[in-house]
């Protein structure tokens, strides 16, 4: 080694190597020196030399996947192809299939075996790295029981030592739904509205109406809705007139699979189409005359509107006075009022305070919503009471079940056990 060239006059030496990964330490000790230069005052010396031995890099390779999307059908298995070029063994390499996050993988082959510790939960028990051709650089991934959530981009990452490459491929998921069902939904725009309906498709399919000769029909209107689990339900309608082709069929095609399903040919008889008869004309004229008469009557009622309004108010007032016979005496329950509500000593009035009172937190007391219940309860009969309210803020009054929730957020509605009316900024509405 060239590190000894400057030791011109040494007679012998010993050297040993300590190898720890990439680093090598060389130690040489001079045992005797008979013809050293006079300027060298030391009879012996020690050299320590540390250097790096660069590992020979593995031969570079390329990771290759398909240049077109891979199509998978929901519920079936799919194979995502991936291989090395040039062909070489990947048995001792790391093969990692992942989506967006490197550490959260779909499947990992490392140290000669599959690793499942940090595998994405959605893929547990659903992936397999096929190893039949791994010595030739083939590392395809099988995914079983395909789901809609499996759709997207996948990365086939292969690493050998410090060298790595990856390929990106796209998986598209498809599902064929039910056979189209055709139904007649009534008359519309002088014709008959025919509807084609099917469910369980992914992605959103194409719908096409055809006549008996297979020619496409136009003028269709389409409404779509997505089902709970991501599948599409299609509802497509067309208006068929008496002069148009009355033999038709509906076909629905999956754009990913280039496959479709078609309904049976549907025929609409002439008797189903609406026709205008003399009786219809006479009825229409009669209807117009009747509408004119009603309009004149309404005008007369409007002229007497003030008088009728006065009568209505008197009637309402009379009904209210009659209901006072069912009036009850309500006393507010101090064990139920919210800490920011202040009751009067007689329990007949309540007001809102800016600060919370120091009240016992018993099970009956409201702790979140500012409510208070009455002491009296009713199980049957007719009851009424009169409430006087001051201020323009929010208030609500009514009846509640004795078992209503008192703690946390509650719903002031029949579902929450409350029936009543509320007022907010001058607007009144029922608590339903």
Quick gist of this model?
The chain is mostly beta strands. The chain has helices at 278-303, 305-323, and strands at residues 13-20, 23-30, 46-52, 62-64, 70-73, 78-80, 83-85, 94-98, 105-110, 113-115, 127-129, 141-143, 152-160, 163-174, 181-188, 191-201, 206-211, 216-217, 220-226, 232-240, 247-254, 259-262, 266-267, 341-343, 350-352, 395-400, 418-424, 427-430. The longest helix has 26 residues, at 278-303.
List the helices and strands and how they pair.
Layout: E1 13-20, E2 23-30, E3 46-52, E4 62-64, E5 70-73, E6 78-80, E7 83-85, E8 94-98, E9 105-110, E10 113-115, E11 127-129, E12 141-143, E13 152-160, E14 163-174, E15 181-188, E16 191-201, E17 206-211, E18 216-217, E19 220-226, E20 232-240, E21 247-254, E22 259-262, E23 266-267, H1 278-303, H2 305-323, E24 341-343, E25 350-352, E26 395-400, E27 418-424, E28 427-430
Stretches where pLDDT is under 50 for at least 5 consecutive residues are 1-57
Strand content: 35-45%
What general form does the structure show?
flat
What percent of residues adopt helix (DSSP H or I)?
10-25%
Largest sheet: 6 strands, mixed
Radius of gyration: 44 Å
Q: Could you tell me the mean pLDDT?
A: 80
Q: Strand-and-helix sequence, N→C?
A: EEEEEEEEEEEEEEEEEEEEEEEHHEEEEE
Strand order of the largest sheet: 5-14-13-8-9-10
Count of helical stretches: 2
Number of strands: 28
Oligomer: single chain
Secondary structure category: mainly beta
Q: Give the termini separation.
A: 95 Å
């Amino acid at each position: 080694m060239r590190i000894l060239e400057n030791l011109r006059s040494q007679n012998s030496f010993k050297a040993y190597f300590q190898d720890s990964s990439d680093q090598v330490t060389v130690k040489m000790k001079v045992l005797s020196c008979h013809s050293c230069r006079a300027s060298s005052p030391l009879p012996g010396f020690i050299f320590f030399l540390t250097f790096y031995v660069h590992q020979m890099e593995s031969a570079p390779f390329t990771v290759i996947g398909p240049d077109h999307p891979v199509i998978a059908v929901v519920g079936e298995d799919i194979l995502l192809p991936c291989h090395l070029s040039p062909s070489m063994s990947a048995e001792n390499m790391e093969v990692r299939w992942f989506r967006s996050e490197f550490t959260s993988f779909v499947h990992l082959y490392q140290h000669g075996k599959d690793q499942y510790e940090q595998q994405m939960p959605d893929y547990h028990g659903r992936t397999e790295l096929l190893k039949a051709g791994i010595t030739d650089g083939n590392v395809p991934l099988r995914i079983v029981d395909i789901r809609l959530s499996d759709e997207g981009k996948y990365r086939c990452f292969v690493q050998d030592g410090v060298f790595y490459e990856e390929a990106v491929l796209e998986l598209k998921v498809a599902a064929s739904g039910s056979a189209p069902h055709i139904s007649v939904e009534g008359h519309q725009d002088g014709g008959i509205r025919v509807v084609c309906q099917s469910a369980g498709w992914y992605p959103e399919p194409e719908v096409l109406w055809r006549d008996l000769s297979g020619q496409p029909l136009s003028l269709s209107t389409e409404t779509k809705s997505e089902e709970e689990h991501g599948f599409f339900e299609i509802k497509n309608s067309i208006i068929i007139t008496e002069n148009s082709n009355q033999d038709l069929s509906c076909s629905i095609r999956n754009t990913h699979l280039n496959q479709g399903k078609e309904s049976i040919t549907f025929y609409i008889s002439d008797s189903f189409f609406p026709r205008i008869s003399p009786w219809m004309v006479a009825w229409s004229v009669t209807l117009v005359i009747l509408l004119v008469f009603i309009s004149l009557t309404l005008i007369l009622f409007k002229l007497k509107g003030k008088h009728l309004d006065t009568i209505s108010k008197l009637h309402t007032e009379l009904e209210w006075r009659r209901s006072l016979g069912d009036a009850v005496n309500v006393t507010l329950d101090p064990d139920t009022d919210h800490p920011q509500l202040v009751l009067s000593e007689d329990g007949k009035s309540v007001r809102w305070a800016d600060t919370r009172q120091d009240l016992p937190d018993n099970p009956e007391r409201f702790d979140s919503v500012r409510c208070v219940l009455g002491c009296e309860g009713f199980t049957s009969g007719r009851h009424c009471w009169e409430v006087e309210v001051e201020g323009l803020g929010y208030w609500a009054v009514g009846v509640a079940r004795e078992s209503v929730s008192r703690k946390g957020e509650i719903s002031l509605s029949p579902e929450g056990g409350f029936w009543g009316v509320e007022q907010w900024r001058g607007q009144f509405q029922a608590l339903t």
